[in-house]
Amino acid sequence: MNIKTVDIRQARTRLPARDGQSILETALQNGIPYPHGCRSGRCGSCKSRLIEGEVEMLPHSRFALTNEEKAGGLILACRAVPKTDVAVAWVVAAGEAAPGPAQKLQGMVVSIDDLTHDIKRFRIRPDGAALAFSAGQYADLGFGELPSRSYSMANRPGDPELEFHIRRVRGGAVSDYVHAFVKTGDRVALEAPRGASHLREYHGGPMLCVAGGSGLAPIKSIVETALAHGVRQAIHIYFGARTERDLYLVEHFEGLARQNANLFFTPVLSRAKTTPRRQGIVTQAVADDLPDLANWKAYVAGPPPMVDAAMESAFARGLKAEDMHADVFFTPQDQAASGAAE
């Protein structure tokens, strides 16, 4: 086995990387809190500068890393596999803080309820103090002997219980087990917080939040936290689903919109035959309603095609790359197709 070394300048450490292992995988396996989001080359959260050495760049979205950025020496750590010993430094935008380390915790399931026909809400109380995290981040959850999976917190930071929306996906051994067998009182292993697609409270412009399916979880955390902290700029939520039975928490968000004049909530159904709700593709609804996104901040969470379409549309309407924060929700099939690590 040909071992390469990865010198991460902010961590002041050199790490061994196995053949085929990305820089991000190497960092996370060694406990380095490297900034990241989707781990699939779509969101750009792990953008880094290659200081020394050569890497192979695996396929990635052109929106996450442009040709100009690549020419300027930037890479995506999640898609960069070292070909030689390398030295890198992650890129932190102005006003951003470097990530802190994830904690390994234990917790207990305290409640379970159905949100839709294939999404359940799990509330988990960590042992000890409430988990410190930023709205929009996620946790790696481990149930029994099954491999851990990533799920976003849907509650506000500081709450004693963590809220997760777990969708049952076809071919998903973990989600099948969780839906069928996990019960209140069960123990859960948590590693959190993770992810860089979190609320930026320093931003004073309007906020766009686009969710698909259980991607509503981090959007819920972001919006509720922003409102609780007195954010007064306009917040537009677009929630895309296939049919009426795939929608959830509609009354909750409609209630928030009635209580907060700056909040606008728009569900969009793509496959409903007869409905009083708006119909079509959620990203097209955003494009039709909001033609100019200059000076906006966007938070997008959902399946890969929706996230890709939302990014392309938003950038075409003036959104800056640093103002897009995307969280991609993968099924096992998505991960296999993209080559992303599970």
UniProtKB/TrEMBL annotation:
Keyword Iron-sulfur set for record: yes
Gene name of this polypeptide: ndoR
CDD domains per UniProt: fer2, O2ase_reductase_like
Residues annotated as domain 2Fe-2S ferredoxin-type: 4-94
Protein's UniProt keywords contain Membrane: no
Leading EC class: oxidoreductase
Protein name, per record: Naphthalene 1,2-dioxygenase system ferredoxin--NAD(P)(+), reductase component
PANTHER family: NADH OXIDOREDUCTASE HCR, PROTEIN RFBI
Cofactor(s) recorded in Swiss-Prot or TrEMBL: FAD
SUPFAM superfamilies: 2Fe-2S ferredoxin-like (SSF54292), Ferredoxin reductase-like, C-terminal NADP-linked domain (SSF52343), Riboflavin synthase domain-like (SSF63380)
InterPro entries linked to this entry: 2Fe-2S_ferredoxin-like_sf (IPR036010), 2Fe-2S_ferredoxin-type (IPR001041), 2Fe2S_fd_BS (IPR006058), Beta-grasp_dom_sf (IPR012675), Cbr1-like_FAD-bd_dom (IPR008333), FAD-bd_FR_type (IPR017927), FNR_nucleotide-bd (IPR039261), MRET (IPR050415)
Assigned EC number: 1.18.1.7
UniProt keyword terms in alphabetical order: 2Fe-2S, Dioxygenase, Iron, Iron-sulfur, Metal-binding, Oxidoreductase
All residue ranges annotated as the FAD-binding FR-type domain in the record: 102-200
Pfam families, sorted: FAD_binding_6, Fer2, NAD_binding_1
GO molecular function, one term: 2 iron, 2 sulfur cluster binding
